Structure formats: structure tokens, C-alpha cells
Amino acid sequence: MSHEEHHGELLKNLAKEYKDIFESSGQAIYVYLDDNHFVCNKKFASLIGHASSKEVEEMKGDFLGSFVTEESQNNLSSAYQKAIEKFEGSAVKISWKKKGGGSVSTTVILVPISYEGHLLALHFISE
User: Taking the model in full, what pTM does it have?
Assistant: First the structure.
């Protein structure tokens, strides 16, 4: 199994494990491994103007550039580094790009999690 396939399978399994949380939470949620490997709930997709979580998850490449306004990119990146390098959670103000234009301001709670030996970041988002 290639590296890409392994990460894809890892997130598929994680999404199954977190299914109840993703579907039942009143917050938008996503779990980030890297720019090409993340899973989100329908509320996150809707928050940024997409029809489904699958539509968002199929977008590959620059996560920050695709979804986060320029003025918020350093905040989210710093919180992610803090989670991955220091195993610390953060609450940060982030503005997200909306698919049809414009942006939405939120508070993101970001925490490190470990799943099948991989370190990821779990994000809960409130408007």
C-alpha cells in the first residue's frame, strides 16, 4: 500500500470511529493530517459554502490557501504547530473563505489527537 493509500485508509477508518461525534455535534468539525488528507463533517462543509463533506475532502493541495483567509492563515498554522510539536490545544479566531465569495468568522478549538500511531489535529469550530 502506498503512502497516499495508507493515509486515505487511515482517515476513512477515523471517520468511521468519530461518526457519532461528526454527525451529532452542533459544531463544524474537521480532522487534519496534511493538505491532501483531512475529513470534515457536513456542518464544516456548509459553513464554507459547500454542498457536502465529500466535496470539501476531495479538494487537494493548499488547505490554508483554499479555505482560510490570508489574515487568519498564520493563526491557524501556529495553533497546528503548537498541537503537533508541543501537544497543546488552542482556541483561535479564524476567518474562513466561503466557496461563493466572502468569509465567515469563527472560533476554532484545535487539539492534538493520535490515531493508529499518527498524530493529527482535531478542530471544533463555532461561529
Answer: 0.92
